[in-house]
């Protein structure tokens, strides 16, 4: 029972640091044993120290054994010469402090691992998965074989109980080494898959942007091209030419507006960030969109406008974000209805609630709001909400969206509150 529990402890000392590294250290650094190499070296050093300080009896009381060689071998193969050298120093100092019979053979064996195993690293990293696992097992196997042979030829230690003790020791250590290597290979494969997925998502986003830009710019460009061809082919009166020019300018402005929307999302640019009164800005938006709401039979109801609500924002971009949400809410009620606005301050946070009585959105649609080229409208491009989400994030705010059947959709914009001393 003591042998089994001691072996389990040693295995735990080896596996646990690898799991800790994978869980906490590699977050955002998807390159095993390269990013935060120092941290993993320290963890493997702790593995060596714990294994050496908690050995276990193997089969008989004559053999006290530990698995210190496993982190040394795995660390040398995946970490390289510098990691291997540091682990050797740790193991050697610890072995000298422990003392006792076999210290000389142990340090000689550790030196061999520290020198020889890193030389195999370049070839090892190019091997296939199955070949790597076999190589780890053989290195571990021959490492203990060196202990046996060095004791016999250099220090005249007898070779006794070779098959029933040493062979089992070699197999035991080899299996644990394979388990550690398997875990590392699994982590490396998961990180490779994650990198591939992230790269694919970036390329997918780029393709969406390219498709959106080409699709949206084609319309105004085709219009401009058509008018220019007409003026080249036919003679028109000055009045008609001016009408064509005006139409062309509108199409150019539409294209510029589209490009600006994409630039705002990709790399928002801001004017001066000032402390603004939310009440004043909302009232301005109501003046701008009031006629549009009335023409669509929409009644805008202001529940509350907190006079003290102030935030740090770029006034122009803030207007743009609010206009996008209010306009979408109005368009979500084709048969008319009410649009509600509520501004309040709670616990140093300003909340702006914008609610419509239109068709509800599904949970999937709510989660996808702000994605490139996603819109719930049949003719929408998704640019408005994409820009809105980008603008709100850049102002240290965030958006909550709730949608329920019979209640419409509620957008809640949350911003850190600011003082009124510099309000403009």
Automatic annotation (TrEMBL):
<feature type="transmembrane region" description="Helical">
    <location>
        <begin position="136"/>
        <end position="155"/>
    </location>
</feature>
<keyword id="KW-1003">Cell membrane</keyword>
<keyword id="KW-0472">Membrane</keyword>
<dbReference type="InterPro" id="IPR003661">
    <property type="entry name" value="HisK_dim/P_dom"/>
</dbReference>
<dbReference type="Pfam" id="PF07694">
    <property type="entry name" value="5TM-5TMR_LYT"/>
</dbReference>
<dbReference type="Pfam" id="PF00512">
    <property type="entry name" value="HisKA"/>
</dbReference>
<feature type="transmembrane region" description="Helical">
    <location>
        <begin position="39"/>
        <end position="56"/>
    </location>
</feature>
<feature type="transmembrane region" description="Helical">
    <location>
        <begin position="76"/>
        <end position="98"/>
    </location>
</feature>
<dbReference type="GO" id="GO:0005886">
    <property type="term" value="C:plasma membrane"/>
</dbReference>
<dbReference type="GO" id="GO:0000155">
    <property type="term" value="F:phosphorelay sensor kinase activity"/>
</dbReference>
<dbReference type="GO" id="GO:0005524">
    <property type="term" value="F:ATP binding"/>
</dbReference>
<dbReference type="GO" id="GO:0071555">
    <property type="term" value="P:cell wall organization"/>
</dbReference>
<keyword id="KW-0547">Nucleotide-binding</keyword>
<keyword id="KW-0812">Transmembrane</keyword>
<protein>
    <recommendedName>
        <fullName>histidine kinase</fullName>
        <ecNumber>2.7.13.3</ecNumber>
    </recommendedName>
</protein>
<feature type="transmembrane region" description="Helical">
    <location>
        <begin position="162"/>
        <end position="184"/>
    </location>
</feature>
<dbReference type="InterPro" id="IPR011620">
    <property type="entry name" value="Sig_transdc_His_kinase_LytS_TM"/>
</dbReference>
<dbReference type="Pfam" id="PF02518">
    <property type="entry name" value="HATPase_c"/>
</dbReference>
<feature type="transmembrane region" description="Helical">
    <location>
        <begin position="6"/>
        <end position="27"/>
    </location>
</feature>
<dbReference type="InterPro" id="IPR004358">
    <property type="entry name" value="Sig_transdc_His_kin-like_C"/>
</dbReference>
<keyword id="KW-0597">Phosphoprotein</keyword>
<feature type="domain" description="Histidine kinase">
    <location>
        <begin position="212"/>
        <end position="419"/>
    </location>
</feature>
<dbReference type="InterPro" id="IPR005467">
    <property type="entry name" value="His_kinase_dom"/>
</dbReference>
<keyword id="KW-0067">ATP-binding</keyword>
<dbReference type="InterPro" id="IPR036890">
    <property type="entry name" value="HATPase_C_sf"/>
</dbReference>
<keyword id="KW-0902">Two-component regulatory system</keyword>
<dbReference type="InterPro" id="IPR036097">
    <property type="entry name" value="HisK_dim/P_sf"/>
</dbReference>
<dbReference type="InterPro" id="IPR003594">
    <property type="entry name" value="HATPase_dom"/>
</dbReference>
<keyword id="KW-1133">Transmembrane helix</keyword>
<feature type="transmembrane region" description="Helical">
    <location>
        <begin position="105"/>
        <end position="124"/>
    </location>
</feature>
<keyword id="KW-0808">Transferase</keyword>
<keyword id="KW-0418">Kinase</keyword>
């Amino acid at each position: 029972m003591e042998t089994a529990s001691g072996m389990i402890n040693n295995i735990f000392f080896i596996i646990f640091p690898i799991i800790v590294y994978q869980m906490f250290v590699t977050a955002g650094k998807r390159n095993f044993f390269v990013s935060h190499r120092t941290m993993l070296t320290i963890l493997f050093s702790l593995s060596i120290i714990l294994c050496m300080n908690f050995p276990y009896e193997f089969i008989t009381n004559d053999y006290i054994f530990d698995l210190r060689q496993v982190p040394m071998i795995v660390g040398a193969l995946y970490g390289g010469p510098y990691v291997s050298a540091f682990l050797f120093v740790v193991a050697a100092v610890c072995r000298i402090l422990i003392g006792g019979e076999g210290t000389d053979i142990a340090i000689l064996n550790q030196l061999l691992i520290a020198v020889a195993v890193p030389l195999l690293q370049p070839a090892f990293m190019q091997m296939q998965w199955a070949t790597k696992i076999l190589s780890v097992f053989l290195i571990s196997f021959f490492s203990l074989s060196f202990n046996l042979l060095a004791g016999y030829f250099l220090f005249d230690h007898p070779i006794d109980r070779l098959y029933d003790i040493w062979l089992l020791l070699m197999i035991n250590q080899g299996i644990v080494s394979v388990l550690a290597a398997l875990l590392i290979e699994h982590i490396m494969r998961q990180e490779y898959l994650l990198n591939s997925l992230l790269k694919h998502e970036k390329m997918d986003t780029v393709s969406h942007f390219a498709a959106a830009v080409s699709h949206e710019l084609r319309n105004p460009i085709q219009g401009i091209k058509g008018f220019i061809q007409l003026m080249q082919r036919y003679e028109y009166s000055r009045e008609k030419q001016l009408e064509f020019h005006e139409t062309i300018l509108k199409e150019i402005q539409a294209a510029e507006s589209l490009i600006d929307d994409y630039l705002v999302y990709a790399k928002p640019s801001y004017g001066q960030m000032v402390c603004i009164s939310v009440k004043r800005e909302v009232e301005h938006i109501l003046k701008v969109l009031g006629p549009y709401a009335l023409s669509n039979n929409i009644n805008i109801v202001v529940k509350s406008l907190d006079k003290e609500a102030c935030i740090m924002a770029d006034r122009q971009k803030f207007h743009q974000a609010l206009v996008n949400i209010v306009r979408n809410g109005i368009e979500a009620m084709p048969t008319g209805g009410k649009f509600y606005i509520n501004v309040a301050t709670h616990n140093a946070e300003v909340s702006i609630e914008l609610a419509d009585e239109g068709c509800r959105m599904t949970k999937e649609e709510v989660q996808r709001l702000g994605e490139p080229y996603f819109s719930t409208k049949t003719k929408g491009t998704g640019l408005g909400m994409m820009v809105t989400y980008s603008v709100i994030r850049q102002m240290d705010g965030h958006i909550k969206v709730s949608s329920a059947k019979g209640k419409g959709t509620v957008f809640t914009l949350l911003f850190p509150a600011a003082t009124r001393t510099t309000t403009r």
